[in-house]
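Our consortium's second objective concerns turning raw sequence data into structural hypotheses that experimental partners can test. To show how far this objective has progressed, the report includes one record in full. It was chosen at random from the queue rather than selected for favorable results. The single chain below, 253 residues long, was entered without modification.
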Amino acid sequence: MGRGLTSGSGKEARAAAVAALTGLRPRLAAAGLGLGIAHVDEPRLGPAGPAEASAAATMTPGRRREFLAGREAARRALRLVGANCGEIPREGRLPVFSPGRAASISHSAGTAVAVARVPGGDTPLGCDLELRPLPGGAARLVLGPDEEGLLEPAAGTECGPWSLTGLFSAKEAAWKALYLAVGEAVTASMGTLRDLRAEPCGDALRIGPRTGPAYAMRVRVRVLTVGAGVFSYASGWADLRGRPTAVSTARRS
């Protein structure tokens, strides 16, 4: 999910975010992940095939540029892990990737990012970019009563408080990762972000469904500062016992 910025501050925020995101590439590469970045003002941004062109034609100009930037970010992420990719059609609002390819896409304030894994890998895929802070009143839409303590320093630990924007972003990344791994039938209980529970896991968060068939599944999510915002990505399965025995062949993010 992403919220826009005014044009002046948006360009400055985008430049800072792109610089910070670019600096994260080696870190993700060490985990077998490619990080693709694109932005809506790129001069050569365009559809990679008829399916993308058809989808883009139905959109407003701003949404069209955002859509195309997301597709380009996904292609760049896939190239970084040695998996070239042509056009990326959609089913509903979700991107559909060809066999052997998978990526997670997010965009905010004119910047698009995507995370892809090395072909044959099983690292959960999910990312989220947020370049504007959430208002405090949004906490009730993101956190359950048992998670409100995450916004304050944990007694007796070195883990400082998590921002509401960071927790929102982390849950978005976890939702995408779980959906891609096991599909809609298993994750149907995840209707809102409050249906996911987050808890500290070292310098990361462990996040999984509160109920339902995927209850035992937890992903580890890292939340990193990028410019004035945050970037979150799934960095692994937090509980091996809950890890899916076969990763879904769906190519959605």
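The partners drew two points from this record. Strands lie at 33-39, 90-91, 94-95, 103-108, 111-117, 127-130, 196-201, 204-209, 219-226, 229-237. The first helix runs from residue 7 to 30. Both points have been shared with the crystallography group to help prioritize constructs.
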